[in-house]
Specification:
Layout: E1 3-10, H1 15-29, H2 34-54, E2 60-67, E3 71-78, H3 85-90, H4 102-109, E4 112-117, E5 123-130
Antiparallel strand pairs: 1-2, 2-3, 3-5, 4-5
């Protein structure tokens, strides 16, 4: 089974739980293992929070989701200036209490992570996570 959706959201903090809820419902409907759902939702939260924090005066951003039996693909696209993840890697280490853990978390939680400019000049983060479905429960036959 496949589920795909795209939403345009206002660049504000209230949009993040909304898109998290949509994605959670889709993943649960497909029977994705709880640990995988948690990883995907946290990665999505970090990507959306970065947009809300750094997209500047832009009014909206877009989240595209495509889920099939084996993989969940998410893109979070905005009209902000974008950034160079390599430049962040070159910055001096700072305390995790100062924020800035989003990139590290996303890298740890998903199988593929990319930042790139889209064909229309927007900037996006692209996440991909392989899915594991829970093992089927043993059914007892009537005696």
């Amino acid at each position: 089974m496949n589920i795909a959706f795209s939403v345009r959201l206002p660049v504000d903090a209230q949009s993040v739980p909304l898109v998290r809820g949509l994605l959670r419902q889709a993943l649960e409907h497909l029977g994705v293992a709880a640990a995988g759902i948690d990883d995907i939702l946290l990665a999505l939260t970090e990507a959306c929070a970065n947009v809300v924090q750094h997209a500047g005066g832009h009014e909206e951003y877009q989240v595209d989701v495509a889920i099939d039996d084996t993989v969940c693909r998410i893109s979070v696209i905005d009209d902000g200036a974008g950034f160079d993840p390599e430049a962040i890697a070159d910055e001096p280490a700072r305390s995790p209490l100062d924020g800035g853990r989003g990139l590290l978390l996303m890298r740890a939680l998903v199988d593929r992570l990319a930042f790139r400019e889209t064909e229309d000049g927007r900037h996006g983060v692209f996440l991909e996570k392989q899915l594991a479905t829970p093992s089927p429960r043993l059914r007892l036959l009537p005696t």
